[in-house]
Nucleoside diphosphate kinase
Amino acid sequence: TERTYIMIKPDGVQRGLVGKIIARFEERGFKIVALKMAHPTEDHLRKHYADLANKPFFPGLVKYMASGPVIAIVFEGLDAVKTGRAMLGATNPLASPIGSIRGDFALAVGRNICHGSDSVESANKEIDLWFPEGITSWKSVYEGWLYE
Ligand code: GTP
Ligand code: MG
């Protein structure tokens, strides 16, 4: 099984969507193996979004992401990275299918309420960046009913 880093952004926290977003992943069958609230510094966010440093929207993105606490989560399960991205929807909420998190709860690309790792390699980097203390490992009693 695979792990992905999912983050509820400051607007998702402010809008009271934490429970709904986590519930979708739990209901799908993904297992929480790390979770915390954190108020990231701009410096930390510049590391998280280092690949986007040359984009015109980068300074605004860093300010938005540092504007309040976020919920940092690691979910584990089958094909977690790709499935997690599909559950979030497209980067632009208006292009996200109804039924996806951004398609149901957001409108603007610069306020798209959640983040998801875009590859297994990014997931590993992001998990190390956000959880340097390490993550947990536990066996769910549902596993025999989720997986054949
Ligand atoms: P993340 O899961 O947050 O990484 O989003 P993503 O992988 O769907 O998109 P990407 O990594 O390319 O961009 C990171 C974030 O930057 C997006 O989620 C948006 O919040 C923001 N962003 C991306 N493109 C634009 C843009 O054209 N304008 C603005 N204002 N923000 C953008
Ligand atoms: Mg991205």
Notes: The chain has eight helices and four strands. The first strand starts at residue 2 and ends at 8. The longest helix spans residues 18-28. The chain has a mean pLDDT of 98.
